[in-house]
From TrEMBL:
Organism: Reyranella aquatilis
A Pfam family that the UniProt record links to this protein: HTH_31
Superkingdom as given in the UniProt entry: Bacteria
PROSITE patterns assigned: HTH_CROC1
Listed InterPro entries: Cro/C1-type_HTH, Lambda_DNA-bd_dom_sf
Domain HTH cro/C1-type: 10-65
Protein's recorded name: Helix-turn-helix domain-containing protein
Length: 129
């Protein structure tokens, strides 16, 4: 099974906190094997309760919690976009959702920074009307 954006995002949040799989599982009161399956993409769509336990154990910001929930509900988001959103703390869940629905053409890696800038311009223009 290939990795998922949700799994990569979850793993990176865990690593940022300096927690092992077992430590996160203990704090969240979730089986460590289940956390591993979520991170590797073997399991998708965790329950709201599991997500709440994970975000509390990870002590995520409201934004990161919302992004993680979005990724759990939208398994087709690209890993690259999820990684970009994790690194650029200004990306909102709304912007992530809009960028996830954009079509990128060509053999090169999508330029997520430019995509987010375009979305922000578009959202700004809506406020002018």
């Amino acid at each position: 099974m290939t990795q998922s954006a949700f799994g990569v995002f979850l793993r990176k949040l865990r690593e940022r906190r300096g927690l092992s799989l077992r430590e996160l599982a203990l704090l969240a009161k979730i089986d460590h094997a289940y956390v591993h399956r979520l991170e590797t993409g073997e399991k998708e769509a965790p329950s709201d309760e599991a997500l709440t336990r994970l975000t509390r154990a990870l002590k995520t910001t409201k934004r990161d919690s919302e992004l993680l929930r979005y990724l759990a509900r939208h398994p087709n988001v690209s890993i690259g976009l999820a990684e970009y959103a994790l690194e650029d703390q200004t990306v909102t869940p709304e912007e992530l959702g809009m960028a996830a629905n954009m079509a990128f053409r060509g053999p090169t890696r999508p330029d997520y920074r430019t995509a987010i800038e375009r979305i922000r311009r578009m959202l700004g223009d809506e406020g002018l009307g």
